[in-house]
Amino acid sequence: MANTKVGIVGIGFIGSDHLHRLTKTIANVDVTAVCDIIPGKAQKELDRQGLKAKDYHDYHDLVDDPNVDVVVCTASNEAHHEIVMAALQAGKFTFCEKPLALDAKDCMEIIKEEEKYGHRMLQVGFMRHYAPEYVQMKQMIDNDVIGKPLMMDERHYNQTQPEEYDSSRSIIETAIHEIDLDHWLLGEDYKNIRVLPVKKTRAVQNDQIQDPMIVMMETTSGINIYLQVFVRCQYGYDIKCDVIGEKGVLELPTVPQVAVRKDAEYSTAILTDWKARFESAYDIEFRDFMNHVSVKKSPVGPSAWDGYIAAVTADAALKSLADNGKVEELDFPKTPDFYTEK
After folding, report:
1. What crossing angle do the helices spanning 41-49 and 13-24 adopt, rounded to 10°?
2. Domains in the chain: ranges and CATH
3. Which of 75, 115, 127, 249 could potentially form a cystine with 79 if both were Cys, beta carbons 3.0 to 4.6 Å apart?
4. pTM exceeds cut of 0.90
5. What pLDDT, in 10s, does the model give residues 131-146?
């Protein structure tokens, strides 16, 4: 069987990482085309990795290339909607990094376009669905190991974001991971959300930026979720997820590190970026996606509907933050059969 031919739109940090993954880690894949809005950027990355592919300056040309079977969208967030729509309209299986789009309206347009095919064509890059530790947590929740979940305690700390990474990006790019993840882990929609501004870090000099912040969500059955988001944390990349149930607690493990005993101290390292923390999840995610679409089967990972749920919730979170922590009620339509049928 011939290798599946992939085109990547957007060769930034994550795009470059996926370029390497799809050419060096995932079997039976050829990256035949790349595209970036910055002239020469994609070709420079091809040269750095020692790869050859068609370098397009316009993503429409990549999408329409008959030598591209699958489109991977890793462009800037504001371009996701138009690129995904073009890929679907061209009949290409599509992988889109999160968020699916910047607002719920654009996500719904993508859903309507995908539904025309009668089967799924798209997967959204919520890679934590593939992280073994989260998969185990979901299995334990589903198997009633801790009884009914009552609340969750989470943090998402990151030290690698630039000054221009503002409050909206803290929600749409950072907190959206937990917004999606908790919906998946608990299998429930959200009833409401609020975002509380707290005392700012001195690393923030711009009054338009709130960092850190607290995101509080309540599910339809009354499970309360408490999430700390801190994108200019000084000490490292730190992810926490505790699920507190009637009979016990599930605690997300930290990444194993070799402990050091030296100079009367005992210490372990803390990771400094998301890539090292979730690299295996990205590998598993793409392997699963490519295994399906390479034989013309629908992808089974996070769907456009998951992207829509996350977008609606993120929209409400931004409204709450703008209104000094006001509770925003949420009401989702019933999940279409299109996204529940296997």
Report:
1. 40
2. 4-128+279-303 (3.40.50.720), 130-273+308-339 (3.30.360.10)
3. 75
4. yes
5. 999 999 999 999 999 9
